[in-house]
Design a protein that fits this description.
This protein is mainly beta. It contains five helices and 48 strands.
Length: about 600
């Protein structure tokens, strides 16, 4: 009997220890600037009033793995010892390895403090120590050098649901973090997850909002980077060093600016994957949106920048010199898939090129710049001088464009073959262009650019739904810009004449099925990438970023017409959650079959002939 009791006590002891460990591991602390309780972070009522206090405690307590922060404004120079702030520009919120910092909670004063809505309950980490910032970075001289800083993370550090505002890393010293990015400086050697955040009005010498160095797998997802500025490069983000695996997913870059390279994103000897991002109205001296650079010396071990950019849009970006949207320089070996370039522009430049894309290299072939564009659409981009309004290459470059459309791009020579794809002085060979639609001087003559029919190219009008139009005064001038709609219309000659074998594999696993060896499943809209658009029974990929299907006009029975049979189909699925029939608003509907979808069918009633 005694032995049994001892065994029972021993077992109970183990269970208690295990339960204690589980409870300790899951420890969460709270921050709310409206709290007036015990100030120990144990609950919303007893929350820390200052985020800096919570970070100090979490840094010394390895059992804390999450800090929840309520709506409000938090500044890095303020804590319980100095509630009014010290004015110390060097103060920063230092993120902690293994700790998730989560904002957007309702906090005290709301019916349920645990409700989380990052838009309704803004949680702002502000570098504006005096609270007097004005637009265009006026009155920011006293702002924090870095609002956020992290020295290293093993992948368990998370920043989720914050507005990061007003950092000012304006020291021109490359060796110090105070001369890096004003929003968040990740000094490197690990990785961090930055999710559902807004970075705005931050300034940095190198990376206005975010600077990531030597990452092995950081991820920036569902973030907005708006009106940030950099002196040297990357008004939004600078990703520096390492053949890293940084991922930038579903982010919006808008109205960021750099006085030098890359208005939005500077890739310096780095190879991130960029998926479902929008770059709109960013500006820089070279590379209005992205500047990709790699240089290993001569001769030297090869060290390239190899970014992959998938299902992303570049609209209305502007470069003072070359590369209105993207500038590839040095040993950049990038892949662009299902990307759209519309209304980007470049002024005058040293090497004359690239209203949308410009590439140049320093070295011949083995260390050259070569990029691959697959199913991309370049339309209505402009270059003030000569050298190509669309795609331009200079010196030791050898890129490929397959299943692409280049139309209506303009330079000083007008709208012609050269203004679509320009090979500028010094280039060793023309780009490889196949299965593509390229505008030339006369679509009615026998000549077709870049190998013509032998390379399966065409020079016929792609017949977009609506061509972009700058209003006659240039992009970004006045309020009359119309970026158009570059989806293919039913009569487009670009439907079902691409090359299925050139559709790349789904390395980013866009459909989350775990299969990265299958062909990429989606187009830029997130709809089927290879589809039977002409209803002849064979699925063939289209040219350009968007795949055509009559189903998007209401042809639910896939007969290339919109008629009573399709009306029956929509009626039988009325008010149901059926993605195949939920076509409005585009591109993926609103989750239910309703009058919006019926309106699309009605608009295209009785349309449909084989293109």
């Amino acid at each position: 009997m005694r032995k049994t009791n001892l065994k029972s006590l021993f077992a109970m002891s183990i269970i208690c220890v295990a339960l204690t460990q589980v409870t300790t591991i899951a420890r969460i602390i709270y921050v709310d600037d409206d709290a007036n309780g015990l100030n120990d972070g144990s609950s919303w009522a007893n929350a820390y009033r200052f985020l800096q206090d919570a970070l100090d405690v979490a840094n010394s307590d390895p059992n804390i793995n999450e800090i929840r922060v309520a709506q409000g404004i938090y500044k890095p120079d303020a804590n319980s010892a100095g509630p009014n702030g010290s004015g110390d520009r060097y103060a920063t919120f230092e993120l902690i390895n293994g700790v998730s910092l989560i904002g957007g909670y309702a906090g005290l004063g709301e019916p349920d403090p645990n409700i989380r809505d990052i838009q309704l309950y803004e949680t702002i980490l502000s570098g504006d120590l005096n609270g007097d910032d004005e637009p265009n970075f006026i009155n920011n001289a006293e702002n924090s050098y870095n609002v956020l800083y992290i020295s290293w993370s093993n992948g368990t550090t998370v920043l989720n649901g914050f507005v990061v505002d007003g950092g000012n890393a304006n020291i021109d010293d490359y060796s110090q973090r105070y001369g890096q990015s004003g929003g968040l400086y990740d000094e490197g050697g690990g990785n961090i997850s930055i999710v559902n955040c807004v970075f705005r009005n931050n300034y940095g010498y190198r990376g206005g909002a975010i600077h990531i160095k030597d990452s092995t797998g950081s991820e920036i997802q569902n973030c907005t980077l708006r009106e940030n500025r950099s002196y040297y490069g990357g008004g939004g983000i600078l990703v520096r060093y390492g053949e890293n695996q940084t991922k930038i997913i579903s982010c919006l870059f808008t109205q960021n600016m750099s006085q030098s390279k890359a208005g939005a994103l500077y890739l310096y000897k780095s190879s991130p994957t960029i998926v479902d991002c929008i770059f709109i109205q960013n500006s820089g001296s070279s590379g209005g949106a992205i500047y990709c650079y790699s240089f290993s010396g001569w001769p030297s071990e090869e060290k390239y920048s190899n970014p992959t950019i998938i299902n992303s849009e570049f609209i209305g970006n502007k470069a003072l010199y070359d590369g209105g949207a993207i500038y590839f320089r040095g040993e950049c070996h990038s892949t662009l898939i299902n990307c759209k370039f519309v209304a980007n522009s470049a002024s005058s430049g040293d090497y004359n090129g690239g209203g949308a894309i410009w590439e140049m290299s320093f070295f011949p072939y083995s260390q050259s710049c070569y990029n691959t564009l697959l199913n991309c659409t370049l339309v209505g981009n402009t270059r003030d001088g000569t050298g190509g309004g669309g795609f331009a290459a200079y010196a030791w470059t050898r890129s490929s464009l397959i299943n692409c459309i280049l139309w209506g791009n303009k330079d000083a020579t007008g709208i012609n073959e050269r203004s679509q794809i320009s090979v500028v002085q010094g280039s060793q060979e023309d780009p490889c262009v196949k299965f593509s639609c390229i505008q030339d001087d006369d679509p009615d003559d026998a000549y077709i650019p870049f190998g013509g029919l032998a390379n399966h190219n065409i020079d016929d009008n792609p017949k977009f739904r609506c061509d972009p139009n700058d209003g006659g005064d240039g992009w970004g001038i006045g309020d009359n810009d119309d970026f158009g709609d570059v989806h293919l219309s039913p009569k487009s000659p670009c439907i079902d004449i691409g090359d299925n074998n050139s559709v790349p594999v789904d390395l980013a696993d866009l459909d989350n099925d775990g299969n990265t060896a299958e062909p990429i499943p989606f187009d830029l809209d997130g709809r089927a990438r290879i589809f039977d658009g002409d209803c002849n029974g064979t699925n063939v990929v289209d040219m350009g970023a968007y795949e055509f299907s009559y189903a998007y006009f209401g042809d639910f029975d896939n007969q290339c017409d919109v008629d009573f049979d399709d009306l029956k189909e929509i009626a039988s699925h009325w008010l149901q959650k059926e993605p195949l029939f939920d076509i409005a608003p585009p591109p993926i509907g609103d989750g239910i079959v309703n009058f919006k979808d019926l309106a699309v069918l009605s608009e295209h009633w009785l349309e449909g002939t084989t293109p």
